[in-house]
Protein backbone atom coordinates (compact mmCIF):
# COMPACT_ATOMS: atom_id res chain seq x y z
CA UNK A 1 0.00 0.00 0.00
CA UNK A 2 1.43 3.34 -1.09
CA UNK A 3 2.06 6.07 1.40
CA UNK A 4 -0.46 8.85 1.08
CA UNK A 5 0.80 12.45 1.22
CA UNK A 6 0.20 14.15 4.55
CA UNK A 7 -1.54 17.49 4.40
CA UNK A 8 -0.52 19.86 7.17
CA UNK A 9 -3.16 22.06 8.66
CA UNK A 10 -2.26 25.72 8.82
CA UNK A 11 -4.12 28.48 10.67
CA UNK A 12 -4.48 30.53 7.47
CA UNK A 13 -5.58 27.65 5.30
CA UNK A 14 -9.16 26.64 4.65
CA UNK A 15 -10.54 24.12 7.17
CA UNK A 16 -11.56 20.69 5.82
CA UNK A 17 -15.33 20.20 5.49
CA UNK A 18 -15.30 17.49 8.16
CA UNK A 19 -14.02 19.99 10.75
CA UNK A 20 -16.38 22.85 9.92
CA UNK A 21 -19.31 21.48 11.99
CA UNK A 22 -17.15 20.86 15.08
CA UNK A 23 -15.46 24.23 14.75
CA UNK A 24 -18.86 25.93 14.48
CA UNK A 25 -20.06 24.08 17.57
CA UNK A 26 -16.98 25.08 19.56
CA UNK A 27 -17.35 28.67 18.45
CA UNK A 28 -20.99 28.73 19.49
CA UNK A 29 -20.13 27.32 22.92
CA UNK A 30 -17.39 29.90 23.43
CA UNK A 31 -19.75 32.73 22.54
CA UNK A 32 -22.31 31.44 25.00
CA UNK A 33 -19.76 31.49 27.81
CA UNK A 34 -18.93 35.10 26.90
CA UNK A 35 -15.31 34.77 27.98
CA UNK A 36 -12.58 36.91 26.47
CA UNK A 37 -10.35 33.97 25.77
CA UNK A 38 -7.66 34.80 23.24
CA UNK A 39 -7.16 32.90 20.02
CA UNK A 40 -3.59 31.67 20.37
CA UNK A 41 -3.36 31.17 16.60
CA UNK A 42 -3.57 34.94 16.18
CA UNK A 43 -0.30 35.28 18.08
CA UNK A 44 1.61 32.61 16.14
CA UNK A 45 3.33 33.16 12.81
CA UNK A 46 1.78 31.64 9.70
CA UNK A 47 2.90 28.22 8.49
CA UNK A 48 4.84 29.66 5.57
CA UNK A 49 7.04 31.71 7.91
CA UNK A 50 8.08 28.73 10.08
CA UNK A 51 11.56 27.52 9.22
CA UNK A 52 13.44 24.47 10.35
CA UNK A 53 16.45 25.17 12.62
CA UNK A 54 19.62 25.05 10.61
CA UNK A 55 22.24 25.33 13.30
CA UNK A 56 23.06 26.32 16.83
CA UNK A 57 20.43 28.42 18.62
CA UNK A 58 21.65 31.99 18.98
CA UNK A 59 20.56 34.99 21.01
CA UNK A 60 19.20 36.80 17.97
CA UNK A 61 16.93 33.82 17.28
CA UNK A 62 15.50 34.07 20.76
CA UNK A 63 15.05 37.81 20.37
CA UNK A 64 13.11 37.17 17.17
CA UNK A 65 10.76 34.74 18.88
CA UNK A 66 10.42 36.42 22.30
CA UNK A 67 7.93 39.14 21.20
CA UNK A 68 5.61 36.45 19.87
CA UNK A 69 5.79 34.45 23.10
CA UNK A 70 5.38 37.61 25.15
CA UNK A 71 2.28 38.61 23.22
CA UNK A 72 0.80 35.13 23.57
CA UNK A 73 1.48 35.07 27.31
CA UNK A 74 0.16 38.61 27.58
CA UNK A 75 -3.10 37.58 25.93
CA UNK A 76 -3.55 34.81 28.49
CA UNK A 77 -2.74 37.23 31.33
CA UNK A 78 -5.21 39.79 29.99
CA UNK A 79 -7.88 37.11 29.85
CA UNK A 80 -7.38 36.29 33.53
CA UNK A 81 -6.99 39.95 34.47
CA UNK A 82 -10.10 41.27 32.72
CA UNK A 83 -12.30 38.69 34.42
CA UNK A 84 -11.73 40.56 37.69
CA UNK A 85 -13.45 43.66 36.28
CA UNK A 86 -16.25 42.18 34.17
CA UNK A 87 -19.89 42.64 35.07
CA UNK A 88 -21.36 39.19 35.23
CA UNK A 89 -24.57 38.96 33.16
CA UNK A 90 -27.72 37.94 35.00
CA UNK A 91 -29.11 34.47 34.66
CA UNK A 92 -31.26 34.14 31.53
CA UNK A 93 -34.98 34.46 32.16
CA UNK A 94 -37.13 31.37 31.62
CA UNK A 95 -39.68 32.74 29.16
CA UNK A 96 -42.46 30.28 29.86
CA UNK A 97 -45.92 31.46 28.96
CA UNK A 98 -47.22 31.10 32.51
CA UNK A 99 -44.21 32.95 34.05
CA UNK A 100 -44.30 35.94 31.69
CA UNK A 101 -47.29 37.63 33.45
CA UNK A 102 -45.46 37.30 36.78
CA UNK A 103 -42.36 38.91 35.27
CA UNK A 104 -44.48 41.81 34.00
CA UNK A 105 -45.98 42.26 37.47
CA UNK A 106 -42.46 42.35 38.92
CA UNK A 107 -41.42 45.11 36.50
CA UNK A 108 -44.49 47.16 37.45
CA UNK A 109 -43.84 46.73 41.17
CA UNK A 110 -40.12 47.59 40.96
CA UNK A 111 -40.39 50.63 38.67
CA UNK A 112 -43.80 52.09 39.55
CA UNK A 113 -44.11 51.30 43.26
CA UNK A 114 -40.74 50.53 44.88
CA UNK A 115 -38.66 53.06 42.94
CA UNK A 116 -40.87 56.12 43.70
CA UNK A 117 -41.11 55.06 47.34
CA UNK A 118 -37.33 54.74 47.56
CA UNK A 119 -36.80 58.15 45.95
CA UNK A 120 -39.16 59.61 48.54
CA UNK A 121 -37.25 57.92 51.38
CA UNK A 122 -33.92 59.24 50.09
CA UNK A 123 -35.37 62.74 49.61
CA UNK A 124 -36.70 62.83 53.17
CA UNK A 125 -33.32 61.63 54.41
CA UNK A 126 -31.48 64.43 52.62
CA UNK A 127 -33.93 67.04 53.93
CA UNK A 128 -33.42 65.86 57.51
CA UNK A 129 -29.66 65.61 57.06
CA UNK A 130 -29.06 69.01 55.44
CA UNK A 131 -31.44 70.87 57.74
CA UNK A 132 -29.41 69.55 60.69
CA UNK A 133 -25.88 69.29 59.34
CA UNK A 134 -25.61 72.88 58.07
CA UNK A 135 -26.59 74.52 61.42
CA UNK A 136 -24.33 72.13 63.34
CA UNK A 137 -21.39 72.88 61.05
CA UNK A 138 -21.87 76.65 61.19
CA UNK A 139 -23.05 77.28 64.75
CA UNK A 140 -20.87 74.89 66.74
CA UNK A 141 -17.44 75.91 65.46
CA UNK A 142 -16.28 76.75 68.96
CA UNK A 143 -17.34 73.37 70.35
CA UNK A 144 -15.25 70.93 68.36
CA UNK A 145 -15.99 67.78 70.36
CA UNK A 146 -19.76 68.26 70.30
CA UNK A 147 -19.75 69.26 66.63
CA UNK A 148 -17.63 66.25 65.66
CA UNK A 149 -19.91 63.89 67.56
CA UNK A 150 -23.06 65.30 65.94
CA UNK A 151 -21.56 65.31 62.45
CA UNK A 152 -20.48 61.71 62.93
CA UNK A 153 -24.03 60.69 63.89
CA UNK A 154 -25.54 62.61 60.97
CA UNK A 155 -23.24 60.92 58.43
CA UNK A 156 -24.27 57.54 59.83
CA UNK A 157 -27.91 58.63 59.51
CA UNK A 158 -27.74 59.64 55.84
CA UNK A 159 -25.89 56.41 55.02
CA UNK A 160 -28.74 54.50 56.69
CA UNK A 161 -31.20 56.32 54.41
CA UNK A 162 -29.11 55.29 51.38
CA UNK A 163 -29.18 51.64 52.45
CA UNK A 164 -32.94 51.88 53.03
CA UNK A 165 -33.39 53.27 49.49
CA UNK A 166 -31.99 49.97 48.13
CA UNK A 167 -33.98 47.86 50.61
CA UNK A 168 -30.59 46.80 51.91
CA UNK A 169 -30.48 43.51 53.78
CA UNK A 170 -27.10 43.71 55.52
CA UNK A 171 -25.96 41.26 58.16
CA UNK A 172 -23.00 42.30 60.30
CA UNK A 173 -20.83 39.68 61.99
CA UNK A 174 -18.36 40.36 64.78
CA UNK A 175 -17.87 43.22 67.23
CA UNK A 176 -18.64 46.77 66.16
CA UNK A 177 -15.47 48.82 65.43
CA UNK A 178 -14.39 51.19 68.19
CA UNK A 179 -12.33 54.39 68.23
CA UNK A 180 -8.79 53.52 69.24
CA UNK A 181 -5.42 54.92 68.20
CA UNK A 182 -2.98 52.96 66.03
CA UNK A 183 -5.48 50.81 64.19
CA UNK A 184 -6.62 50.69 60.58
CA UNK A 185 -9.46 48.77 58.92
CA UNK A 186 -8.95 47.24 55.47
CA UNK A 187 -11.68 45.72 53.29
CA UNK A 188 -12.16 44.24 49.84
CA UNK A 189 -13.72 46.64 47.35
CA UNK A 190 -16.67 45.97 45.04
CA UNK A 191 -18.40 49.33 44.76
CA UNK A 192 -18.53 52.75 46.35
CA UNK A 193 -21.54 51.48 48.29
CA UNK A 194 -19.04 49.45 50.37
CA UNK A 195 -18.26 52.67 52.16
CA UNK A 196 -21.96 53.50 52.67
CA UNK A 197 -22.75 50.05 54.07
CA UNK A 198 -19.84 50.21 56.52
CA UNK A 199 -20.47 53.87 57.36
CA UNK A 200 -24.04 53.35 58.57
CA UNK A 201 -22.66 51.28 61.46
CA UNK A 202 -19.50 53.26 62.23
CA UNK A 203 -18.37 56.68 61.00
CA UNK A 204 -15.11 55.68 59.33
CA UNK A 205 -12.60 58.12 57.94
CA UNK A 206 -11.91 56.65 54.51
CA UNK A 207 -9.12 57.15 52.00
CA UNK A 208 -10.65 57.28 48.55
CA UNK A 209 -10.09 58.40 44.97
CA UNK A 210 -11.28 61.96 44.34
CA UNK A 211 -14.37 61.88 42.11
CA UNK A 212 -15.94 64.59 39.93
CA UNK A 213 -19.57 65.72 39.89
CA UNK A 214 -21.96 65.54 42.82
CA UNK A 215 -19.93 62.76 44.46
CA UNK A 216 -16.89 65.05 44.55
CA UNK A 217 -19.05 67.81 46.06
CA UNK A 218 -20.10 65.49 48.87
CA UNK A 219 -16.49 64.48 49.43
CA UNK A 220 -15.24 68.05 49.77
CA UNK A 221 -18.12 69.40 51.90
CA UNK A 222 -19.58 66.63 54.07
CA UNK A 223 -17.19 63.68 54.25
CA UNK A 224 -14.16 65.81 55.04
CA UNK A 225 -15.87 66.69 58.33
CA UNK A 226 -15.27 63.12 59.55
CA UNK A 227 -11.59 63.13 58.53
CA UNK A 228 -11.74 61.45 55.10
CA UNK A 229 -8.63 61.67 52.93
CA UNK A 230 -8.73 61.98 49.14
CA UNK A 231 -6.09 61.23 46.52
CA UNK A 232 -5.68 61.56 42.76
CA UNK A 233 -4.00 58.74 40.81
CA UNK A 234 -2.66 61.15 38.20
CA UNK A 235 -0.77 63.26 40.76
CA UNK A 236 2.51 61.65 41.82
CA UNK A 237 3.03 64.18 44.63
CA UNK A 238 -0.23 63.06 46.23
CA UNK A 239 1.39 59.85 47.44
CA UNK A 240 3.74 61.61 49.84
CA UNK A 241 1.01 63.94 51.10
CA UNK A 242 -1.45 61.08 51.63
CA UNK A 243 1.17 58.95 53.41
CA UNK A 244 1.81 61.78 55.87
CA UNK A 245 -1.92 62.29 56.47
CA UNK A 246 -2.37 58.58 57.14
CA UNK A 247 0.42 58.53 59.73
CA UNK A 248 -1.00 61.61 61.46
CA UNK A 249 -4.53 60.21 61.49
CA UNK A 250 -3.76 56.83 63.08
CA UNK A 251 -1.89 58.52 65.93
CA UNK A 252 -4.93 60.50 67.10
CA UNK A 253 -7.05 58.90 69.84
CA UNK A 254 -10.13 61.01 69.02
CA UNK A 255 -10.03 60.50 65.26
CA UNK A 256 -12.59 58.31 63.54
CA UNK A 257 -11.40 54.78 62.68
CA UNK A 258 -9.46 54.77 59.41
CA UNK A 259 -10.86 52.62 56.59
CA UNK A 260 -8.75 51.70 53.54
CA UNK A 261 -9.59 49.68 50.44
CA UNK A 262 -6.07 48.43 49.61
CA UNK A 263 -7.04 46.96 46.23
CA UNK A 264 -7.30 50.53 44.96
CA UNK A 265 -10.12 49.79 42.52
CA UNK A 266 -13.49 48.04 42.35
CA UNK A 267 -13.34 44.26 41.73
CA UNK A 268 -16.38 42.16 40.84
CA UNK A 269 -16.75 40.34 44.20
CA UNK A 270 -15.49 37.06 42.77
CA UNK A 271 -11.76 37.89 42.77
CA UNK A 272 -9.26 39.81 44.88
CA UNK A 273 -6.36 41.69 43.30
CA UNK A 274 -3.09 42.64 45.01
CA UNK A 275 -3.23 44.82 48.11
CA UNK A 276 -1.18 48.01 48.16
CA UNK A 277 1.31 47.95 51.01
CA UNK A 278 0.70 51.52 52.24
CA UNK A 279 -1.89 50.45 54.82
CA UNK A 280 0.52 47.86 56.22
CA UNK A 281 3.48 50.21 56.75
CA UNK A 282 1.82 52.39 59.37
CA UNK A 283 3.10 50.38 62.34
CA UNK A 284 -0.36 49.73 63.77
CA UNK A 285 -2.78 46.84 64.06
CA UNK A 286 -4.79 45.96 60.95
CA UNK A 287 -8.44 44.90 61.27
CA UNK A 288 -9.65 42.92 58.22
CA UNK A 289 -13.20 43.48 56.98
CA UNK A 290 -14.71 40.99 54.51
CA UNK A 291 -17.69 42.04 52.36
CA UNK A 292 -19.64 39.54 50.29
CA UNK A 293 -22.66 40.48 48.14
CA UNK A 294 -25.37 38.02 47.22
CA UNK A 295 -26.35 38.34 43.55
CA UNK A 296 -29.82 36.88 44.09
CA UNK A 297 -31.47 40.23 43.26
CA UNK A 298 -28.76 42.51 41.82
CA UNK A 299 -25.04 42.52 41.08
CA UNK A 300 -23.57 45.23 43.33
CA UNK A 301 -20.32 45.52 41.34
CA UNK A 302 -19.78 49.06 40.02
CA UNK A 303 -18.13 48.92 36.60
CA UNK A 304 -16.97 52.54 36.50
CA UNK A 305 -15.86 52.23 32.87
CA UNK A 306 -19.36 51.41 31.66
CA UNK A 307 -21.66 53.37 33.95
CA UNK A 308 -21.60 56.44 36.15
CA UNK A 309 -22.23 56.15 39.86
CA UNK A 310 -25.64 57.78 39.36
CA UNK A 311 -26.67 55.02 36.96
CA UNK A 312 -25.26 52.47 39.39
CA UNK A 313 -27.49 53.84 42.16
CA UNK A 314 -30.51 53.77 39.83
CA UNK A 315 -29.76 50.12 39.09
CA UNK A 316 -29.73 49.37 42.82
CA UNK A 317 -32.89 51.38 43.51
CA UNK A 318 -34.85 49.57 40.78
CA UNK A 319 -33.87 46.12 42.02
CA UNK A 320 -35.69 44.09 44.63
CA UNK A 321 -32.98 44.38 47.31
CA UNK A 322 -29.24 44.56 47.98
CA UNK A 323 -28.18 41.57 50.10
CA UNK A 324 -24.72 41.29 51.66
CA UNK A 325 -22.75 40.06 54.66
CA UNK A 326 -20.04 41.99 56.48
CA UNK A 327 -17.51 40.29 58.75
CA UNK A 328 -15.34 42.26 61.20
CA UNK A 329 -12.41 39.89 61.71
CA UNK A 330 -9.71 39.60 64.37
CA UNK A 331 -7.06 42.39 64.36
CA UNK A 332 -3.64 41.37 63.05
CA UNK A 333 -0.17 42.76 63.75
CA UNK A 334 3.08 42.56 61.85
CA UNK A 335 5.01 39.44 62.85
CA UNK A 336 8.77 39.53 63.56
CA UNK A 337 10.71 39.30 60.31
CA UNK A 338 7.57 39.79 58.20
CA UNK A 339 7.70 42.40 55.44
CA UNK A 340 4.77 44.77 54.73
CA UNK A 341 4.13 42.93 51.44
CA UNK A 342 3.94 39.57 53.24
CA UNK A 343 1.71 41.16 55.87
CA UNK A 344 -0.61 42.46 53.14
CA UNK A 345 -0.81 39.02 51.53
CA UNK A 346 -1.63 37.42 54.88
CA UNK A 347 -4.47 39.87 55.44
CA UNK A 348 -5.70 39.24 51.90
CA UNK A 349 -5.71 35.49 52.58
CA UNK A 350 -7.89 36.06 55.66
CA UNK A 351 -10.40 38.24 53.77
CA UNK A 352 -10.55 35.92 50.75
CA UNK A 353 -11.10 32.85 52.94
CA UNK A 354 -13.97 34.53 54.81
CA UNK A 355 -15.68 36.13 51.76
CA UNK A 356 -15.03 33.23 49.36
CA UNK A 357 -12.94 35.25 46.88
CA UNK A 358 -10.31 33.96 44.45
CA UNK A 359 -6.84 35.47 44.76
CA UNK A 360 -5.17 36.69 41.57
CA UNK A 361 -1.60 38.09 41.35
CA UNK A 362 -2.49 41.24 39.38
CA UNK A 363 -2.11 44.90 40.27
CA UNK A 364 -5.50 46.62 40.15
CA UNK A 365 -3.93 49.84 38.85
CA UNK A 366 -3.36 48.10 35.52
CA UNK A 367 -7.08 48.59 35.02
CA UNK A 368 -6.37 52.31 34.58
CA UNK A 369 -2.95 52.20 32.85
CA UNK A 370 -0.80 49.86 30.77
CA UNK A 371 2.97 49.28 30.93
CA UNK A 372 5.01 51.50 28.61
CA UNK A 373 6.60 50.08 25.41
CA UNK A 374 10.11 50.52 26.87
CA UNK A 375 9.12 48.47 29.92
CA UNK A 376 7.78 45.70 27.68
CA UNK A 377 11.01 45.72 25.60
CA UNK A 378 13.13 45.34 28.73
CA UNK A 379 10.96 42.42 29.83
CA UNK A 380 11.38 40.77 26.40
CA UNK A 381 15.16 41.19 26.56
CA UNK A 382 15.26 39.74 30.06
CA UNK A 383 13.08 36.82 28.96
CA UNK A 384 15.36 36.01 26.01
CA UNK A 385 18.50 36.10 28.13
CA UNK A 386 16.98 33.84 30.78
CA UNK A 387 15.95 31.28 28.15
CA UNK A 388 19.43 31.37 26.60
CA UNK A 389 21.02 30.87 30.00
CA UNK A 390 18.75 27.91 30.63
CA UNK A 391 19.72 26.30 27.33
CA UNK A 392 23.44 26.83 28.02
CA UNK A 393 23.10 25.16 31.41
CA UNK A 394 21.60 22.09 29.76
UniProtKB/TrEMBL annotation:
Q: Which CDD domains match?
A: LPLAT_LPCAT1-like
- What transmembrane ranges does the database entry give? 95-113, 119-140, 152-172
All residue ranges annotated as the Phospholipid/glycerol acyltransferase domain in the record: 183-294
Q: Name one Pfam family in it.
A: Acyltransferase
Which of UniProt's keywords are assigned here? Acyltransferase, Lipid biosynthesis, Lipid metabolism, Membrane, Phospholipid biosynthesis, Phospholipid metabolism, Transferase, Transmembrane, Transmembrane helix
Task: Look up the record and give one Gene Ontology term from the biological process aspect.
Answer: phospholipid biosynthetic process
> Per the record, which residues fall in region Disordered?
1-30
Q: Indicate the principal place this protein occupies in or around the cell.
A: membrane
Enumerate the GO terms in the molecular function aspect.
Answer: glycerol-3-phosphate O-acyltransferase activity
The family database entries (InterPro entries) matched by this protein are listed as: LPCAT1-like (IPR045252), Plipid/glycerol_acylTrfase (IPR002123)
Stretches of Low complexity bias are at 20-30
The keyword Cytoplasm belongs to this UniProt entry's keyword annotation: no
Metabolic or biological pathway, per its Swiss-Prot or TrEMBL entry = Lipid metabolism
Q: Where in the cell is it found?
A: Membrane
**One cellular component term from this protein's GO annotations in UniProt:** endoplasmic reticulum
The Swiss-Prot or TrEMBL record describes its family as follows: Belongs to the 1-acyl-sn-glycerol-3-phosphate acyltransferase family.
Q: Which PANTHER family match?
A: GLYCEROL-3-PHOSPHATE ACYLTRANSFERASE 4, ISOFORM D-RELATED (PTHR23063:SF2), PHOSPHOLIPID ACYLTRANSFERASE (PTHR23063)
What name appears for this protein in its UniProt entry? Glycerol-3-phosphate acyltransferase 9-like
Amino acid sequence: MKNQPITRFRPDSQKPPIMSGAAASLKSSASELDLDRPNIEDYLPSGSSIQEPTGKLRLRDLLDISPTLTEAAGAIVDDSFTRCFKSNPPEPWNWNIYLFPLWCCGVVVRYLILFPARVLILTIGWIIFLSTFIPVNLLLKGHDKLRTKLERSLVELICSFFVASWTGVVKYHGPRPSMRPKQVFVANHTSMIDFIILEQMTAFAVIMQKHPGWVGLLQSTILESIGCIWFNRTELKDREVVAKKLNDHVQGADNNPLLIFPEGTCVNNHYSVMFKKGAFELGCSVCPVAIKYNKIFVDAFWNSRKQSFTMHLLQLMTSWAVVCDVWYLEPQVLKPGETPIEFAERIRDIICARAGLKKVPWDGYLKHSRPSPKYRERKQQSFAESVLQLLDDK
